[in-house]
Structure formats: C-alpha cells, structure tokens
Specification:
The protein has strands spanning 10-14, 22-23, 26-27, 31-34, 60-64, 72-73, 76-77, 81-87, 90-93. The protein is mainly β. It has one domain. Strands 1-8-9 form a three-stranded mixed sheet, with no helix packed on it. It is globular and about 35 Å long. It binds iron/sulfur cluster (2 copies). Residues 11, 14, 16, 19, 21-22, 27, 29, 32, 42, 44-45, 59, 84, 91 line the site of one iron/sulfur cluster (SF4). One iron/sulfur cluster (SF4) is lined by residues 11, 14, 16, 19, 21-22, 27, 29, 32, 42, 44-45, 59, 84, 91.
Length: 98
C-alpha cells in the first residue's frame, strides 16, 4: 500500500461512543469528513460496535464541506484541532464557529 503523509487538524476527542471508529472517546479513523453543505455533522459516522484494534492511530480532518465556518478555507479545515460531539441526536463538530 502506498502511504501519504499530510498535515491535518487532529480530532482531539469525540463523544460519539456509538460510532464504529470510536474507542475511549477518541476517533481512530485515518481521516474523517465533516459536514454537508449546511450542518457540521460528522459524515464519517458509522453506527455500530467498536472496531478499533489499534489505539495509537488518531484521526485527522480530511475534508470539511461547511464553507461558512470561520476555520474553513477552500473546503478544508484549518483549525488546530477539533472536538466532535452531539447537537441533539446528531453528530456535530463542536469547534464549528461562524
Ligand atoms: S469523529 Fe466521526 S467518525 Fe470519528 S468517532 Fe466521532 S463520529 Fe465517529
Ligand atoms: S472547525 Fe469548522 S472547518 Fe473545521 S471541521 Fe469543524 S466545521 Fe469544519
């Protein structure tokens, strides 16, 4: 497998413990996508039991579709790191700001 090394904002914590990528309130996907064109939900969310075997891998924000967030530039996130949680029953980027 070829590997790419790029800088991404880190997902510092995630409260969505019913997501397949979540272990101990951390996201262990390689990279996540945030948002549809309106809401900063986690587009990578997958409801299910934990799959993670490797705890050391932390997720980065690979892409963000929420262009009206102050941290968004050209559909990419430029925050230092983000936190993910809930807004009501939906997943939500808690770092989102207009
Ligand atoms: S950031 Fe998204 S993909 Fe990662 S654990 Fe949370 S809800 Fe799941
Ligand atoms: S902080 Fe803003 S730009 Fe970054 S992932 Fe969250 S909503 Fe997208």
């Amino acid at each position: 497998m070829e590997k790419v090394c790029i800088e991404m904002p880190r997902v510092s914590d995630c409260m969505v413990t019913n997501c397949t990528y979540n272990l101990e309130k951390s996201c262990h996907a390689r990279a996540i996508t945030i948002g549809d064109s309106k809401n900063p939900n986690c587009d990578t969310f997958l409801n299910g039991s934990t799959h993670c075997k490797e705890k050391s891998q932390s997720a980065g924000v690979g892409a963000c579709k929420v262009s009206h967030c102050k941290f968004n530039d050209d559909f990419e996130c430029n925050a230092e790191n983000i936190s993910v949680g809930f807004s009501g029953k939906s997943t939500y980027c808690l770092t989102f700001k207009v």
